[in-house]
Automatic annotation (TrEMBL):
Keyword 4Fe-4S tagged: no
Keyword Protein biosynthesis: yes
Region (Disordered): 183-286
InterPro entries: EIF2D (IPR039757), eIF2D_N (IPR048247), eIF2D_SUI1 (IPR039759), Pre-PUA (IPR041366), PUA-like_sf (IPR015947), PUA_eIF2d-like (IPR048248), SUI1 (IPR001950), SUI1_dom_sf (IPR036877)
UniProt xrefs under Pfam families: Pre-PUA, PUA_elF2D, SUI1, SWIB_eIF2D, WHD_eIF2D
Record's compositionally biased regions (Gly residues): 258-268
Alphabetically ordered keywords of this record: Cytoplasm, Initiation factor, Protein biosynthesis
CDD domains: eIF2D_C (cd11608), eIF2D_N (cd11610), PUA_eIF2d-like (cd21156)
Protein's name according to its UniProt entry: EIF2D protein
Biased composition (Basic and acidic residues): 198-218, 239-256
Feature: compositional bias, Acidic residues: 273-284
Domain SUI1: 516-589
């Protein structure tokens, strides 16, 4: 669950009532704990805090920290101890023992498979199904993982120690352990020994598996974060290569014969796909919007906001900087997030130390500082937006805009129905072709398969492949004219467009290219406003265009999320300014007239 970095949504000091409730919940979940042990794990006077996490797999988790160390976490109203707590009270949970080299697989997200469990002289500990269980390594009783059993110990013995034994939730060396003071695995005495007659053929790599895992975890992180403190390292989850581990002794071989697909180390295919299954779980719309807000926030700070922009109005941060960083197919809507208001979102970001917000004038908040060195900001990778906006430079006095329009090429994308036909030329589904390329392909296909009608060369004979691809439902298709062949094929393909800006690589836009839409709306009284949509589709930044329009017409402008549209921004200017907008876009920016609609709504000149 914590193999990949998580996002801290909030962190607060725990209140006295919450502390007492936590102590009661822990005592209920772990009845083996004594009052003294409960007092040690949830003390009355020591500093404790609560963290709300959003994991990579889309889970909301509450973590309780004692000092800097996470000691318990709550998932689906169930409380689980961390390895930090288990090291304080090692016997709070029944414990299964496994081989040292299995640690690598557990840290990689695998579950514990029964062939990898070592039975002691007294057999397995008594455990019921779906109960909390710890996992330790042979030779050291300090727990390295915690999870839930999938069956009771009696059922484990009955099934011949095959299948999955424990669903692992948290391990030593994962991101939750990383969030604490990173105490190394302690060495604790153990009565467990290798079963008689099954001495494992361990080499030095197995006995040093903990150090190996640490090195593999930190190898990539250390290369990019040399100047960061250890608590800010983000460890890459790339150490789960189970195929590199050797099978162990005869005991393992006997247990894996006829088993359930494990890899000989107690970590089977269920473990390999555990993380993928978690990622496929449904994420609530509020959490999705929270993640989008956070992405656009970091994107804006890293690319758009400069030190010279500070102090920056919080409203301008959202509209002028975060909104342009939103992917084209999505839109930011604070009301759909868990924050509901921009002020609450920025308070959460301030609590994380990313920025500082102050009320410089009554009722108006501004961003007065940004922590450019914050680990979240430094490690954030700017995502690829479908169509990056090409900036329109602000003109000087008397100067016109230097925007250069893109060259637009209408394209057609191969659909699933046409994929078998185009596959004959090595063209796969989703590949985009121009109209000329589609025509050339069909011509070549007809010639290679000799489909031209010998009696009338205006017609081609439809073979089974063409028939399946082009015929309508219930139609018996035998012959087509050349023009019908081209028309039907293009109609069956998905429209798209390729935009080529000067000095930039081509950008492919899926779907029909929507023109710039200019509308005039009547507001209260006799007031009118002009709305301009879809400027981003042609590489024009809405905020820059709004400023240019404001200078031209000497009227107020605003940039807001487009209303009743899937995505994008709208530029609003007071009055009927269609003629000015048309002059800017068509005459000065040289945007083809067919890509600007609504210019006929310009106000008529008075005689």
């Amino acid at each position: 669950m914590f193999q990949k970095p998580f996002r801290v949504k909030s962190k607060t000091v725990i209140r006295g009532s919450d502390r007492r409730k936590l102590r009661a919940d822990v005592g209920k979940a772990l009845p083996s704990l004594t009052e003294d042990q409960l007092q040690e794990l949830v003390p009355t006077k020591e500093d404790m805090s609560t963290m709300k996490l959003y994991t990579h797999a889309g889970k909301n988790v509450t973590v309780y920290c004692l000092g800097n160390n996470p000691v318990f976490f709550e998932l689906d109203k169930n409380v689980f101890p961390t390895v930090y707590s288990l090291w304080r009270v090692p016997d709070m949970l029944p414990c299964l023992t496994t081989w040292p080299n299995v640690l690598k697989n557990l840290c990689g997200g695998a579950d514990l498979m029964l062939p990898g469990v070592i039975e002691g002289a007294e057999g397995l500990p008594v455990i019921d199904k779906n109960k909390l269980c710890a996992i330790s390594l042979l030779g050291n009783s300090a727990p390295v993982a915690v999870g839930r059993t999938t069956m009771s110990s009696a059922q484990m013995a009955e099934c011949g120690m095959r299948g999955k034994g424990v669903t692992v939730l948290h391990t030593y060396l994962d991101q939750l352990w990383e969030h604490g003071d990173q105490t190394p695995l302690p060495t604790m005495a153990t009565q467990q020994s290798c079963p008689e007659g099954h001495v494992p053929d361990l080499d030095p790599r197995d006995t040093a598996s903990e150090e190996q895992v640490k090195k593999e975890l930190g190898a990539e992180a250390s290369s990019t974060t040399d100047t960061l403190p250890i608590e800010n390292l983000v460890l890459e989850d790339d150490f789960g290569n189970k195929g590199d581990l050797e099978k162990e002794n005869d005991l393992d071989k006997e247990n894996t014969e006829g088993g359930m697909g494990d890899d000989g180390n107690g970590c089977g295919k269920e473990g390999e796909t555990k993380e993928e299954e978690e990622e496929e779980e449904e994420v609530s719309p509020a959490d999705q919007m929270d993640a989008l807000l956070y992405q656009c926030f970091l994107h804006a700070l890293k690319t758009n906001v400069k030190k010279t922009d500070l102090p920056l109005l919080t409203s301008k941060l959202l509209r002028g900087h975060m909104q342009p960083c939103c992917p084209a197919e999505k839109s930011l809507d604070l009301k759909k997030s868990s924050y509901k208001k921009l002020s609450k979102f920025l308070q959460a970001m301030q609590a994380q130390g990313l920025l500082q917000v102050k009320e410089l004038s009554k009722g108006v908040e501004s961003v007065v500082g940004v922590n450019w060195g914050h680990v979240e900001l430094k490690s954030f990778e700017v995502p690829d937006i479908e169509l990056p906006a090409a900036e329109v430079p602000d003109p000087g006095p008397g100067a016109g805009p230097t925007y250069q329009p893109p060259e637009v090429v209408e394209m057609y994308s191969v659909t699933g129905n046409l994929a078998p036909l185009f596959r004959t030329a090595g063209i796969r589904k989703g590949h985009a072709l121009s109209g000329q390329e589609v025509r050339e392909f069909l011509t070549q296909y007809v010639k290679e398969n000799e489909l031209m009608d010998p009696n009338n060369r205006r017609f081609i004979v439809v073979d089974p492949l063409l028939c399946d691809a082009l015929r309508q439902k219930g139609e018996n298709l035998t012959h087509l004219t050349w023009e019908d062949l081209f028309t039907r094929c293009c109609d069956k393909m998905s429209p798209c467009a390729q935009l080529v800006f000067p000095g930039q690589p081509p950008v492919l836009k899926k779907g029909k290219l929507e023109p710039v839409d200019v509308q005039v709306q009547q507001r209260s009284g006799n007031k009118k406003v002009t709305l301009i949509y879809n400027l981003e589709g042609f590489g024009i930044r809405p905020d820059t265009f709004a400023h240019l329009l404001q200078l031209r017409v000497q009227a107020s402008t605003a940039v807001n999320p487009a209303v009743n549209r899937k995505a994008g921004m709208q530029v609003m200017v007071q009055g009927n300014q269609v003629s000015t907008v048309a002059k800017l876009l068509i005459d000065e920016m040289k945007l083809p007239k067919k890509f600007v609609q609504g210019v006929e709504k310009a106000a008529k000149k008075k005689r």
